[in-house]
């Protein structure tokens, strides 16, 4: 009977550890457009009530080979959610024209060059939520990337309003959580194996 309890306890620890390890690395959905020579991904984003999303919102771009683009632009059009605004991001390196609280058009006077690497958050904008925003509400941001001689690439990012700071589980806390998860997984697996070995010895 004691061996049965031990196996159940260690199994529960293994499951708990696996869940903790999974929570430490949340996934983010993304709308992806694959093209030639340019492909683009449009990540979803979470914004806390009364705050600003941790990550700026912008398309991820990559190329099938060395490519140079000029007269690049990214337009943003938010809809479907109340109390959420789009704000120019001074750190993006471009120039943004604010058409309204939910519509921005950003351009880059520089040449955009690809050498096989991807560019994350190109000409990004900030997403903020007022205190009047409702947690759980979602909206859509229609994003269009364009350049001279290139067919415009359009995609959609989802904006979800959440409670709290919106901080991802990273840094020391994530390391601690993942470490505990791994320890629990190891303890669960090791305990089950040890119990099986003890049972084998008793049967022999």
Automatic annotation (TrEMBL):
The chain crosses the membrane at residues 173-194. It comes from the Bacteria. Keywords: Membrane, Signal, Transmembrane, Transmembrane helix. Residues 1-29 form the signal peptide. This is Uncharacterized protein.
């Amino acid at each position: 009977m004691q061996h049965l309890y031990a196996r159940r306890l260690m199994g529960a620890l293994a499951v708990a550890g696996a869940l903790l390890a999974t929570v430490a690395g949340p996934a983010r959905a993304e709308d992806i457009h694959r093209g030639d020579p340019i492909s683009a991904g449009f990540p979803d984003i979470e914004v806390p009530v009364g705050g600003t999303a941790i990550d700026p919102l912008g398309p991820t771009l990559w190329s099938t080979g060395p490519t140079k683009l000029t007269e690049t632009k990214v337009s943003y059009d938010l809809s479907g959610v109340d109390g959420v605004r789009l704000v120019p991001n001074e750190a993006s390196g471009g120039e943004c024209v604010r058409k309204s609280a939910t519509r921005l058009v950003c351009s880059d006077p520089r040449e955009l060059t690809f050498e096989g690497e991807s560019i994350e958050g190109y000409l990004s904008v900030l997403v903020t939520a007022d205190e009047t925003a409702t947690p759980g509400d979602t909206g859509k941001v229609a994003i269009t990337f364009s350049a001279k001689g290139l067919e415009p690439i359009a995609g959609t990012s989802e904006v979800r309003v959440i409670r709290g700071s919106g901080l991802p589980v990273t840094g020391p806390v994530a390391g601690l959580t993942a470490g505990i998860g791994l320890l629990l997984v190891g303890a669960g697996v090791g305990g089950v194996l040890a119990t099986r070995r003890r049972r084998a010895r008793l049967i022999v």
